[in-house]
Amino acid sequence: MAESMQGLKRTHRCGELSAANVGETVTIMGWVQKNRNKGGLVFVDVRDRSGIIQVVCEEGKTDPALLEKAASLRAEYVVSFVGTVARRSGAVNDKIATGEIEIIPSELRILSVSLTPPFQVEENSKTKEEVRLKYRFLDLRRPDLQRNLMMKSQVMTLTRQFFAEEGFIEIETPMLGKTTPEGARDYLVPSRIHPGSFYGLPQSPQLYKQLLMCSGFDRYIQIARCFRDEDLRADRQPEFTQIDMELSFVDVDDVIDVNERYLAKLFKDVMNIDVQLPIQRMTWQEAMDRFGSDKPDLRFGMELTDVTDVVRGCGFGVFTGAIENGGSVRGINAQGLCSSMTRKDVDACADFAKSCGAKGLAYAMLKEDGSVTSSFFKFLSEEKIAALKEKLGAKAGDVLFFVADADDMLVKTVLGSLRVYLADKYSLYDKSKFDFLWVVDFPLLEYDKEEGRYVAVHHPFTSAKVEDIPLLDSDPLKVRANAYDMVINGQEAGGGSIRIHDCKMQSKIFSLLGLTDEQISEKFGFFVDAFKYGAPPHGGLAFGLDRLVMIITGTDNIKDVIAFPKVQNASCLMTGAPSEVDEKQLAELALEIEKK
Q: Which residues contact 24 (CB under 8 A, 6 or more apart)?
């Protein structure tokens, strides 16, 4: 039977106590982490979100009834101890903050009992994720997850403080809005009052925040919930949170400036890391050419090298065929990895490249003894081999990898992915280091072969660089956008753009995207109308809060920074959502479920 806490007041959290409290009478409350009964000597570790402290009950020193009660405690019982803080009589535990002290109890109350948990609540649990997510309320008791969520709270608090001091106004935007084309699929909410009509949950507050600029609010900020019905990955969830902002009367430099200062304050305050300002900028084209990625990780080398001219006419059909079809041949130098890689490792690299879309992966292992193992050197002359080595700065001990294809962009992206694969597998960078980079001047449009039309690289409201506007009529794919992404350690932490604020230009972009006047009116009529009444030049940016906290905490799984996440199929293992609803609810919404 659970006991009442009437008359008790917690004086300290467990992890707040220290040697400075020795001699004090304290009251702690928390969960039993572990109970060790040594026969007349009972050690109880009590845990709350601040940490763990040891309570010691000893025969001859502790009331017999209390000693017996302490011996009955099991993992995850909720307890309260009243007692005196003392220095440990045994060895100091330097692995915990309270390792110098213990509590000698005078009172114990069992506030709640627990069934035997399906897994042990412990740091860095090895229990299968599916089990932990089913019992997420237990999983969240783990210290590592609690630290992540407390860090997320700290980031949110600091964010609000910083932007408030910068003159931003926090404004909430609707959850129930109008479904719009472009981007990922919308999550739809049926309307009971308007049968057959649906709200769309926001993929972002994009339209609303631009309308707020039209309304004269000048600087807007919101920690906004967003929803996208898309396939999930380790860093994606169907519902997530953005640090969303918009500013009027600004250019690219203005938006970048305030956000650089935000990042500098954030990383200094929460991690004591100094971010060197201004942060390096790199054009999208340079990022793709040098690193094969629009979010390059600069903590390690292995830059891409274009060897198309070097191997032209070399006699190796894979290379010459790609070049003859208008493609390219590029390579990377995995310096010094020859001694670490076996042929099996090289084959694994080839399999990885194929999984990224390559038809194959050519290689050359330059061994320390001067010998070479290569999949294609036998087709090349000595002069070509020498030129190839020189181009890549190759020396004994290096491993060279090459990709050839008629699609130059595919060549870049495959090698860019292989570069990261090798760096991770062979620990080629300092994981404690943080690298910040702005990637700018993205393409405004790309061509979707399946849909047979242009699509926006970012979104349809991104403006073109002024000098590229004439190309909208002659060569739209060469138009660069006033867009920018913040990349931290090879991950896109945030991005934004200067928006279109001219009605005629917005109509032109809608037209290039293949939207008819009817579609524009139906989907964006309210938005277009607002711009007819004096829209200021404006731009903005959104950081992915969850991804930013992932980077700060060092986790590679977004579920570790979200309290109640979904799994791969967008379901919640704990609650069973999504679930079927009864016929009455469907009838109220004028819906019928078609059985498949």
A: 84, 85
